[in-house]
Specification:
This protein is mainly alpha-helical. The chain contains eleven helices and seven strands.
């Protein structure tokens, strides 16, 4: 039995180093490089996630070429940067549409069993959120222009600035879906995570290309266990056992180290190991500020 402990390592030496190009299919635009650095440090958006959740109106090569021309004129003003973004990008969230789950019920069995009026009302307000937080990926004719990782099934988002699926959040979301008998939606979200395993070899931190060098606690198998305990759908297990094994092996081979305890006993420990020394694209300014504070 392998005990998994999770440690978050903060990069203290932030400098320019590129992500794996094959995983950043929007080229140098959303994951690294001078364009990202210039726009994020310009301050035109209070939240660094705003820009990296946009999509390009033209191919990345054209965007980068036009940016190079802009930089040849000298350090651009804030207004020049704002104008460049408006000409080359569309606002965040446009690749998704609101989706109401087909298996949503106004009065699921769980709510019928809650007798306390105030608690029942609270539970119903939570149940209504499924209709608000459901999303579906729109057809993407030019996926190379987006930071979104497309998935085949609709899903529930955490909300607020988090417009995409997240690994860790999905565990809790699926628990809630199963509690109100929304097994179809839960199954679709599991298929989405298995889709990312099939495509990338693991489940990333979230549904954006800038999350491809990170993960969250490996909860795919516990999620599937929750689903099986509720549905007893053995066919689902049989059909997806290799995907489960593939993600398990990713953690064993890429995120696990050996450590010795006080008694000398050796343990396997899974860690968060980020393959980048750059600021997080969606937290760019905050990371730079943190490093500035640490460096004095």
């Amino acid at each position: 039995m392998i005990s998994l402990c999770f440690i978050y390592f903060k990069a203290l030496n932030i400098k320019q180093s590129k992500m794996d190009e094959s995983k950043c299919n929007a080229s140098d635009v959303f994951c690294h490089g001078q364009l990202l650095d210039t726009i994020q440090q310009s301050g035109i958006y209070p939240d660094s996630k705003t820009f990296v959740d946009m999509h390009m109106l033209m191919n990345p090569e054209t965007v980068l070429k036009d940016f190079d021309e802009l930089m040849k004129q000298g350090q651009p003003t804030v207004e020049a940067i704002r104008s460049f973004v408006q000409d080359h990008f569309d606002g965040p969230g446009g690749e998704l549409e609101v989706w109401i789950p087909e298996d949503w019920s106004e009065n699921p069995e769980l709510l019928q069993r809650i007798k306390d009026p105030s608690i029942n009302q609270f539970a119903r307000s939570l149940n209504d959120l499924w209709k608000i937080l459901g999303r579906k990926v729109l057809p993407m004719n030019h996926p190379e222009r987006y930071s979104l990782i497309p998935v085949p099934y609709p899903f529930i988002i955490p909300g607020d600035r988090f417009r995409e699926f997240y690994y860790w959040d999905t565990y809790w979301i699926i628990g809630g879906l199963l509690a109100v008998d929304m097994t179809q939606t839960a199954r679709g979200m599991l298929y989405n995570l298995l889709h990312t395993v099939d495509r990338y070899g693991f489940v990333p931190n979230g549904g954006r290309i800038y999350y491809m060098n990170r993960s969250q606690p490996p909860l795919l198998i516990p999620m599937i266990d929750l689903y099986f305990e509720r549905t007893r759908n053995i066919d689902f297990i049989q059909q997806n056992i290799y995907g489960m094994e593939k993600e398990y092996n990713f953690w064993i081979e890429n995120r696990t180290i050996k450590v010795k305890g006080p008694s000398g006993t050796e343990h396997a420990m899974a860690i968060y190991r980020v393959q980048s020394t750059e600021p997080r694209p969606e937290g760019y300014v905050a990371d730079l500020d943190a490093i500035q504070d640490l460096s004095g």
